[in-house]
Every structure is written in structure tokens, then in C-alpha cells.
Amino acid sequence: MDRGYLVERKPHPKDIASIWSLLFFSYIHPYIKKGNERPLNEDDVSKIWSTLQSKKLGDKMEQLWDAQIVEKGKKKSLTRLLFHCFWRKYLVLGIFQLLVKILYVVSTPIAVGKLVNYFKEGQTEVTKNEAWMYGGIVILSNTGYLFYEHHYILLKNEMGLEIITSLSSMIYRKILKLSPSKMAEISTGKIVTAITKDVAQLDTAIYYMNDIWVELIQSFVIIYLLYAKLGTSGITGLSSILIILVIQVFVARNVFKKRISANNKSDERLQLTQEIITSIRVMKMYAWETFFGKKIINKRKNEIRELRMLLILKFFSHFLGSICRKLSFLLVLLCYIWFGHSLTSEVVYYITTCFYRLSRTISHLIPICLGTGAELIACMNRIESILTAEEIEETIQDDSNLIIIPKVDFVSVDVGFSSFPILKDVNMKLKPGLNVLIGPVGCGKSSLLKAILREYVILNGKVNIEGSISYCPQNPWLFPSSIKQNIIFGQTFIESKYKTILNSCALSFDLDGLAEGDETVLNDCGVNLSKGQQARVNIARALYKESNIYILDDCLSALDSHVKNYIFANSIQNYLKDKMVILATHDKKFVDKADNVIIMMDGTVTYSGKPTDIPLKVAVSLESLDKDLYDSEEENDQESKEGEEEKPCNEDTELIAKICTSNKANIYHETLITGGIKWKDYKKYFSFGGGFYMFFLVFAIAITVEVCYGYSEKLLSKWVLMEEKMSLHLSPSNSNLTKSLTNVLNQTVTPYLFENETYTERTEAITENYTAVSSNMQINNLNTTIDFLEQRTFFIYLYSNLLFLSTLLFFIGTVLYFIFSLKISKNLHNAMITKVLGAKMSFFDVNMSGNILNRFSKDLYDIDEWIPFIINEAIKMATLLTTTGILISSISPFFSIMTVILVVIFFFACRYCIKPGRNLRRLCTATRSPVVGHLNATLEGLITIRAYGTQSILVNEFDKHQDLLIASHHLFEILIRCLAFTLHMLAAGYVSLIVLKFLIADVESSSSVGLAITQSFVLSNYLDWGLRQWVMLESIMTSFQRAAEYTNIKQETQTGQTVENWPSEGCIKYQNVTLKYRANNETVLKNLNFVIRPKEKIGIVGRTGAGKSSIIVTLFRLYEVEGDILIDDVNIKTLPLDFLRNHIGIIPQDPILFSGTVRVNIDPLGRHSDDEIWQALNAVNLKSAIMDLDEDVHECGLTHSVGQRQLICLARAIIRKTKIIILDEATANMDEETDKFVHDKIHELFEHCTTITVAHRLNSVMRCDRVIVMDNGEIIEFENPNTLLENKDSTFTKWFTIMTIHDFNFQ
């Protein structure tokens, strides 16, 4: 929730740039300069570019989606939506790109060919002036195209950002409308993946998909040019292209399947990670970190298995494109010779230039587009499944000031979850006043309230609800923002009303104790408040909204008795006295205070009317049900107990006060790493794969590949020179000789490539055939001719084998590297999750779940799929540029100097941009955390958000978070374009100098000119590409840095000495125990000294925030304490943590279930048999409610009521054997009879155990041997409850008296 402040940001530089600044990208220079002076931070990010505003794009996309007309029985189409939104702009870009490309590919090969031909010895076709003209065409076409290209790429990137922005905003809006049944099907992991990965895949597709048809048309033009120049031999390479294209289509189909599979595995991993991170306290108290860590690691293993095949398939597609280009080029040369032609410089470098232009299409674009297209379909299907999912029925709340008599009428109503009925034949008619909804655990109270909220489906019957609604959920939900904003929750702030509500909800005293009062920022789920404080903030939120109907779903159960009574009197009876209040509760004491009572049994309403008119039969049935529950007899051999500590129950109210030092602090703020990517970062990266050995092997293979390739290019120039000399030697007038020699070549040279004859055997065959020819034709220089033909055979043989060897080595090296890189990813993830699960609780106090999930989603995605690709490209570029530079330098010393100067200029230009680029990249990743965090918080409180009608407010906040993310990303893209533009302009100058040098000197051979010009194209373009990969590597490695941070988290001390048969008695001693959650914070436990005797039953009571749960925290060593805690005379500091926690059982207040089966939720470690699990379920009276241990349990508990979930947690504890049992307000969500039943069972099953009960119901501790009374972190009373009651001045007596007075009034 927005905290109400605005950050003044500068206008986007593109919005205020001049035309010249836009043309030369100079508007980004101030950011580059500032980034070199100091690290950039969030305050430096400008406003979003007006074209990319999230709200504007989201509104437009949503309107078009809603307006989409579909035929009956069909769903709306995301493809049609995107086409409708962007086809015009996309088509215009494509057409313009096509015209420029065709002009470029037609003019450049012709100009290069003619220019090279000018330097051919003895030629008369091209004059000096024409050579200068062709040289000018080469320079202008190259410079003009490079100038245009980067503006085109930026336009594509910006269109991609438009699609990312609009789709992300639309997905967020959609989840606000999803029905509960669909939310149960669509996991949190899938939604997070859709926004972080799937929409990014659309961006990649936009970048390439428009080029595919342009490049294909360009390819046909090039093939036509080859045909026009070379005849039939010019299109022979087309056959290999078509064959490999068919194979690539087949590979793309498999890429599509593997992408779907990999995404599903990624969803499962993220889903489990999210569940564990949000319930980490429970995990630690159960000592389940290792088990669930292994479970996540196994899911990651499955994900990596799919990713491995996916990346290999994607690379294989690239590899096919690469060999296709080389094979096609070789086939064209051989066929040209086969048809009786001699190679010339003009022909060879015309072909080379054409294939250089064609190479991007064959070896790069087609494989990427096929792979991207396959992945795009998978991602589009996933996004479309979310957008077309069933929505909740939209209800319009009347929030006007008109006086409305609220009504809630149900007539023969059946309520369902999806199409499954959960309530049947509900009849009730509610009027203004207090309506108490009561019934046993699992009877359907919460389901009925959700039916009123229209969250559940009305299957049959008639429902009439009139009036606006406020809602307070059973499980408190708090948004990461200030306490004040959580209460106001989008409503107009009225100070007098606000203060009145704080007093009515007993919050004023708590807020006065906070350093920043109601401006204190709450972490995920409000973990820095106690459960009672969370409940009261939720109640205050419900009261603050001016409504006609107030639905309170058992929200008083988490409160102490006197606080509960105070809030009931002041908030419900007083503040809401003129409203319709529907209070769901287990507490029958509220019934007599009600104007109307609704009694539920077995999923239906058995009575609705005045409390004085309850039929005897209904009253008896309710009592008998509780009695049956209480009297049920089960066999329970276990004396064990293990449970979950409530996720957010932390009594220290100062926990966040020191974190937020400014009201303007970003809730999701992350401390950015500063400085460059150092050698140690790369060393650490490769260390996760086992070291540098594989890197050096791949690098050595890459060097060998480029040496082979570079030598083949040099060989080609020598071959061409030899062919020209052979042409001069063979007189054109002797056509018969030429024809005869061609026939000999066809019979001897070409078959050599496809037969297993040795070079010597084939040379002898050539000699014999040529001798036969010479007997008929009188040739004076027969030996010279034979030497030329032998050289031709040698060049063909060596050139072909070099291409084959380089291709084979390239394939082996790249496959090895990608497998190695995935090993790095797997080991890095495993180290991250292990360290996070083993981290101290202070880590989770300052890192929100959105920040953590961001590193396990987008950062890990970059490490999985982008870093390997970029490092591989960097290796390839380093070796390629080295060999190309050597080739050019071998032609002339002047070129050596030019090449060195160009490399130096490029190097410093990149260095100047690396630091700001790296900072902007870090900002891109850091500003994604608010998006993920906001999304995660929304999913947790979806029902509350809809009940309050604050969807539009949260949409606006999501759009603000996304604007910051997209603005950072846009600035980064502009910076990369600026760098690339600068480098390409320098490269164009380099090519121009080479051309001018040849034209001025006019002394070089044609083969040298052709080699120099074509290789200068390669060097200039690939040097730019290589150095940009360096910049991208520096930027993308920030994702690794962020992920690697989580491998250095301070860990809980696990070392210690186990003690056999410990604890045997269960004696607990606290000696001078003091607890501070964070350094310099107010002490929350102050010098505690007490002893709990073996098998003693101890109760702990106190006001909310008094420190009750903090005592429990110290027993489990969640935080370090001063002083000593001894159990059976063993200092728990000397014990291993897992050993300690496995020997203390806990039943938490907040029952947390994990996605999986009932069996896994009760016994995740698999230590017990099915019979033992059934006995535990029978002990808590759940055997009839659970039909199968393999029955699915949803993470949100949609399949079980809160009370049933708590009983499942109790079953967890029963199935284990521990001498010490902790009940942390474990029965807060149960009715009194069930509460009594549970405590009786605990007394029976754990009779020989030491039991500590944290309670707010004083009757829950009356059977305890002694009671600890806490106040402000100190023990003010510790005695038998009856003894305390005898002392009329004791605090316990005063609280008990207050409770008794209220109880008497209720009765």
C-alpha cells in the first residue's frame, strides 16, 4: 500500500531531447557521465517515458481484451489481442526494414565485387573512376545501414517493453478477479513465472519475429543475386538450406515441448520455495529445513534436466544454421568449378559478401526464431490460461451516502467451491444489528461468509445482499506498508475518526511504544507484530471503512480475554451499534448479546433467529455434537508432539522500527552491490562447476576452431590467387583444351571429396588423365597446368577439411560448456537454498519474501539461460576477433596499426559505459523486487482486497512499481544502443579507411583486397558485438552477484554435542536470560530467571506484546540470547540445533499447510506408518473428515477450515515423541468445547511431558500447575493459578475477574 509520499523524478531524457540528440543518442550521455562519477541509485532513475506508462498501456489492453468478441464455446485469444494492438506499428517497422535491407544487400555485394575486380591483374572492365564510385558505395551503404540499424533496434526494444508492460499490468488486474477455485489451480509460482519470465519471452520474440520474414525475403533476393551472377551453381546451396531448415523445424517442435516441461518444473520449484520462505519460522521450529531443502533441490534437479535438453536443442539449432552457411558456401564454390568455371576474386568475394549477409539469417536468425517461436507458443499458452481463467462474479458495492437498510437474505441456497457443493439448503434473513454466526469446527462458517462476499459460487437458490461490505478475515492479512496505511487502506483519511478507531481497537498504547508509531513499516504478513496486534489492525481496517455490513470472521479468537471483551464492547457493540454486523465465532458467550443468531451444522444453517427463540432440539444437537467430540475415545500411543510456530507471531514491536529510518524508505529496498565485476566473481562462478578446467578446455577448443576458420579464410585468398593465375595460364582462345580440362576435373578432382582414396592416388589419376588429354592437344606447359590442378585439388581438400574440423570442434566445445554451465546453475541454486534455509532469523526480518523470490526466479533465470550464452559468445568473439585481426594485419603493416588503434578506442569506449551500464542493470533487478513483492502480497490477501473494493488502488500501485522497473530497463537499453551506435560508427570509419587506402595505393592484389574488405566487415561488426557482449556480461553477472550473496548469509550455529536419551525428565531452567531481536533495540525479555520442573504443566499469559511468544522463541534458539537456558541440566547452546528442535514439540497458533498430501503434511520425513498417522487423525477427530492420506491439501488451506488445519497441526505433534510440548495459543481458532476437548487430549496424551501453554483464554491455563504472568518482557507473577486467585491484588486475579464479569454478563 502506498505510504503517501511521492518521489520527484526528472523527466525521461527522451521526452525532452532534441532531434539531433535523438539521432545520435546523446540524450543518455548525462547518465553515462553520472554513472562514472558515482554509483547510480533509484533516485537517479527518471520518470517513465510517456509511451511506456504502465497504467495507460494496461488500461488500453484491458479495454481491448474486454471488447474482444468470441464465438460461442471458444475463448478469447491473446494472439488476436496483441495483433490488434500492435500490428500496424510492427508492420510499418517491418516494411521499412525490408526496403533498407534489400537496398543494402543488393548494392554491397555488387560494389565489393566490382571494387575487388578492379585490382585483378590484367582486368580492363573497371576504370579508376568506377573503382572510386564503387568504393564510395561500399562506404556509404555500410555507414548508412549501421546508422539506421540502431534506431530500428531501439524501436523494436521499446515495442517489446510496451508489450511487457501492458501484459504484466493486465495479468495483475486479472488475478484480482480470479475465482477461488481457479486460484487453487493456478499456483503462485505460475503467476510469478508469467510476470517475470513469460512476458520477457514475448519481448525476445518481438525482437526477432519481425525480422524473420524480412530476412527470408532478403535471403531470396540474395539467392537470386547469386543465380544472376553464377548461373545454376548459384542456387545449389539452396538444397542444403532447405534440408537443414526441415531439421530445424523438427528441433523447434521439441524445443516447444521442452520449454513447457521446463516451465512447469520451474513453477513447482518456485511454488514450494514461496511456501517455505513465507513459513520459515515453522520450518525452523520443526527442524524441517534439511528435508524441504532436499525437496526443493530435487525439484531443481528435475528442472535442470529439462533445461539441459532445452539448451542443447536450442544450441543444436544454431549449430545447424552455422554448418548450413559453411556447407552452402562450399557447395556453391564446388559447383561453380564443376560447371567449368575458374574462380576469380570478384566471384569469390561477391559470394563471400552475399553469404556474409545471408549468414545472419541462416546461422542466427532462423534458429533463434524457430526456437523463440516454439517457446513463445508455450509462454503465450501459459499467459492465456491465466487471462481466460474463470473470474469471480463482479459485485458493485454501493458506497454512496444514501441511507440503505442493509439486507442479507438466503433462500434455499446451495454454495459451491467451483462446482463442488460445500453448503446446502441455506436459509437465513439477516437485519441490522449484531448477528452471531456460531457452530463447531468445520461446519462451514467461513464458507458462508465467503458466499456473502460472492467469493464462492451460488449453485442454487436466491441470494439478496444490499449494502456495502467491510470484511475482517479469520487469518489477519497485512500489506507491506505502514500500519496507518494498512488501517486506512485506500479510504479518505479523517483524523478524528482514525483516532477513535485506534482507541476502540486498543491500538493507541501499542503504537505509542513504536519508534515511528503508526508510520512503522510492516514486513511480509506483519511479522514484526504479534498475532493479537495483527488481528486488531485488521479489525481497525474493517471499522475504518464506512459500510452497511461488517463481516467479522472469528477475528477475536487471537485476542486475550480482556482485550477481546474490550474490543467487543467498544468496537462491535458501541462503534458498530447502528450497523449490520455478522460475527463468526466459536465463543457461545457472545450469543446472548446478539440480536440474531445463526447456528450451523454439517454445512447448513440449522437455525436463524433471536437467541431467545433457539429451539431446544437445535441447542441440544449443538451441545451433543460437542459432547460427542469431547467423549470420543481414541487409541494414542504417542506422547510426541510437534507443530508449527505461527508465521508472524513475534512479540517484539521494535523489530522494524530501526529498519525504516525514513518515511520515504522503499519498503522493498535492497542494498545494491557497488563496484565492478571482479576476477573473484568469475572465479566463484566457475567454482560452482568444479573450477576453471572446463572453461579452459572450451577456450582451447574455441581457439582451435578460430585458427582453423582463420586459416581457411587465408587459404581461400591463396586459392583465389592461384585460380586467377591458372586462368591467365590457360589461354581463353584454347576453348577445346579448357573443356577437356573441365571434364578431367569432373572425373578426378570433385569425386575425391566423396571417396576414400588417398591424396597420392587421386594425384596419379589426375596426371594420367591429363597426359591422355595432352596427347591429343599440343600444350607446351603441360607440367605447369598439372601443378595448377594439383594445387586446386589440394586447396579443395584442405579447405573442406578445415571447415569440417572447425565445425566438429565447435559443436563439441559448446555442448560441453552448456552442460558445464547448468552444473554451475544447479550447484549455485543448491547452495542458495541451503544457506537461506539455514540463515539466522534476522535475515528474514530484513528481507521480504518478494526480494528473496526475485533472486530465485528472474536472477536464476538469467544465470540459467543468459550468462552461459553470453560467456560462450564472449569466448567465441575473443578468439574470432583475434584471428580476424591477425588476418587483416598480415596484408599490410598499416592495417596492423589501424586495427590496434580501433581495438584501443573500442576498449576505452566500452570501459566508459560499463560502470553506468552495470549500475542500471542492477537497478533493473532490484526494482523487480517491488513488483514481485506487491504481487505476492496481493495473492495472500485477495479476498480482503476484493471485499474492500481497493483493486483500483492496488492496480495503480502495481503500475507505479512497474513504471520504475521499466524506466530502469529502458535507460539500460538506450545506453546499450548508444554504445553500439558509437562503436559501429567507429567501425564504419575503419572500413572506410581500408577502402580508401586500397584506392589511393592501388598496388595490392585482388585477393588481398577482397580478404581485407570482407574481413574488415567481420572485424568491425564482430568487434562491436564482442565488446557489447563484454558490457552485457558485466551487466548480467550482477544477477550472479545477487544470487551469490545468498551463499554468504550468516548461518545458525549447527555444531554441538548430542546427548543420549535427552531430555529424559523435561526440566527447564532460565538463568539471567535477556533477548534482543536486533542490536541496540529495546530489550524484549529482561533477565528472566525461573525453573520449570519435570512433567510440570506451565501456562504463560500476558497482554499482547508482553513477551509470551518470545519465551518460546528462546527455547528453539531462533535468536541468540544473553544468559543460559538449561534443559535437564544441559545448556541448549551446546546442542546441535536440529537435535534441540527435534526434541521439543510445538503446536502453533497459525496453522500452516503445505501443498501436497495429508500424509506429507503430518509426517513429511516419512518416519511413521499409515496406521500411526490414522491413529493421530483419529485422536483429533479428523478421521471422518479425511478419506485418504493421499488426499491433496492446498497451500492456502482452501480445502480445510482453519480449525481443521489446526487439528492437523495437533496430529503432527501427537505422532512424535518429545518430553517437552509447547502450545502457542494453539486453540485460538476453535470453539470452547473443541478447545476443552483438545486440552483434555493434550493432558491425556502428554501427561508425562513438560507442557508450556501460551494462552489468551485464562480458562486454558487453570488446570496448569503454575502460571507465568508476563508484562513488558518481565515475569511479574509465577505461581499456581488457584494461589494467584487467592491474592486479590495479583494481576492474574484482576484479569480473571474482568473475564468472569464479562462471562457473567454474556450468560
UniProtKB/TrEMBL annotation:
Residues 631-650 are annotated as: Disordered. InterPro entries: AAA+_ATPase (IPR003593), ABC1_TM_dom (IPR011527), ABC1_TM_sf (IPR036640), ABC_transporter-like_ATP-bd (IPR003439), ABC_transporter-like_CS (IPR017871), ABC_transporter_C-like (IPR050173), ABCC_6TM_D1 (IPR044746), ABCC_6TM_D2 (IPR044726). GO terms for molecular function: ABC-type transporter activity; ATP binding; ATP hydrolysis activity. The chain crosses the membrane at residues 90-111, 131-148, 205-227, 233-256, 329-351, 692-712, 794-820, 894-914, 974-1000. Pfam families: ABC_membrane, ABC_tran. Residues 638-650 have a biased composition (Basic and acidic residues). It comes from the Eukaryota. It is found in: Membrane. CDD domains: ABC_6TM_ABCC_D1, ABC_6TM_ABCC_D2, ABCC_MRP_domain1, ABCC_MRP_domain2. Keywords: ATP-binding, Membrane, Nucleotide-binding, Repeat, Transmembrane, Transmembrane helix, Transport. GO terms for cellular component: membrane. Signal peptide: none annotated. PANTHER family: ATP-BINDING CASSETTE SUB-FAMILY C, FI20146P1-RELATED. This is Uncharacterized protein.
